[in-house]
Task: structure prediction
Amino acid sequence: QVNLVESGGGLVPPGGSLRLSCSASASITFFAMHWYRQVPGKQRELVASFPADGDIEYADSVKGRFIISRDNAKNTIYLQMTSLKPEDTAVYYCNAGWYNGIRPGNSWGQGTQVTVSS
Result:
């Protein structure tokens, strides 16, 4: 099990930028790392994925505006968000996924609120 802690959320005007961070309590080198977001009353939505090896993927709604990155030495991933829109308002969650050779596992952070409003 790994604990994840998100930070960096807040209130930003439309067109603004925010950088979210997710710090893990253990090495993430072999983990697939993801950012999700959720609006009350709606399903949690996958925003961006950064596999341990493989291609980075983004939801169509954030392509060209968000960038996911990871620093394995710091056990941390980031989500750089630019050109923010009111519809980006949500709680953003970090997720780690792994396979230990026997069974898959995953862990979630507690979430950080992002509000885009003037």
The mean pLDDT is 96. DSSP finds no helices and eleven strands in the chain.
